[in-house]
Design brief:
2 domains, eight-stranded mixed beta sheet, binds ligand BES, Leucine Aminopeptidase, subunit E, domain 1, six-stranded mixed beta sheet, alpha/beta, Aminopeptidase, binds zinc ion
Amino acid sequence: MKINLTNSSIKKTKADLQIILVNEKDEKSSNSLENELLESLDFKAKDEALAFLPESKKIFVGYEEVSYDSLAIAISTAIKKFQSTTFKSAKLDLTSFDSSILKSIVEGTLLGSYTFDNYKSKKEKKKKQELIICIQEDAPVLDNIELNSILEESKIISKAVNKARDMVNTTPGDFYPEVMANLAKKLAKDAKIDCKIKGEKFLEKNGMNAMLSVGRASIHESKLIHLSYKPKEARGKIVLVGKGLTYDSGGLSLKPADYMVTMKSDKGGGCAVLATIWAIAKLDLPFEVHAVIGAVENMIGGDAYKPDDVLVAKNGKTIEVRNTDAEGRLVLADCLCYAQDEIDEIDYIFDYATLTGACVVGVGQYTTGIMGNNEKLKQSTVESAHKSGEFATSLDFNRYLRKTIKSQIADISNIASTRYGGAITAGLFLDNFVYEENKDKWIHFDIAGPAFVESAWGYNPHGASGAGVRMTIEFLKNLKK
Ligand code: BES
Ligand code: ZN
Ligand code: ZN
């Protein structure tokens, strides 16, 4: 879907269709016949409500409030209808709205029109359609510049989210660590950033025994992916670490059949991190950014790591494995150490992972759980998430849950002794691999819920949503000020 802005009035703008956003307080249409029709169709100005009047070539969509979610849902509802027609262009009048809503309109359009049909034998032909957005006729030059830059920025952000979705939706047969590494190289080349790929020899040589063990039974070699974006006068240094489990069977602590389905999504954190650094480079944000991804497949076999094994992580800490399905934290432990050993003077270190089912149970499928030691930083990442259109909430650590991951035989156990608070105990496990100097700079994002949802929600389709991308870009954009 192409999106263009115009300073022409809605009347003067030529298009095959018109999309009209309707709030409860608005008159639905200035045309009484149309009003009558809308009433007969029982059209209500509610989120996701739509009425298409083919004769007047108008699509009416409701929205309940002027918020990112409400407007993104409204436009994506309209765009889906538009896509189902053979009309080439649609126009939308935004002159009565504040400029800040353009972001939700552009992202709602581009995220809402996303489809994934790589595995359909018959593909829908991609139609060339255009959305023309009318902005103020006599707008001052500065306003036009601002709106155009919102448009361009939102296009890049949406492209990044859709890239993450594409990767996560790809099957484990087609997307294993080497594929992820090659894709990382491709994205790095496109964004003109550096990319280093390390294999198992490197992991062995560098004492990354926790990550190495998780991938041992897989026929695919584990890969450590490190991308770096270093703009000239960088104002800070941000490290993004991602869990890239291209498949999580659970290992010898095998998942029940029903729980294994969708575990292609266990690379969601790694994919989010890849897409985010690509977008940050494309947006020319003035920060040095590193993306470190542990791409691994957790499988079973004669060589599989076992419950009862004790692993030594890169920082020398010993980990008692009591469940091989708690593998993400083992991979992240080594990746966090690698990042902190390789990169000095870090300002922020964030990790992204589909880490626990407990997080989904606790806060629901749509929300990211945010953990860390720095209350202020946690709050500001929650705010960035909300501003960006993502849902997130802060989960608090406490000393009692911290005790539950103690081990009788090693420094730490990979699962807690309690059934409760699983998202937090996983976060506390990771805290053991965050160095003292970085404790206040670290945030853990558990995206197990929103990374992959099996039914469409709002402007998100079935499957991958690209969780983590928008909130991270928003956080960095706010750092600029
Ligand atoms: N990848 C899963 C977590 C997950 C569950 C992600 C559901 C997305 C949806 C993770 O590796 C896992 O299996 N965690 C276990 C931890 C347990 C063994 C302590 C879990 O959540 O059950
Ligand atoms: Zn697992
Ligand atoms: Zn996992």
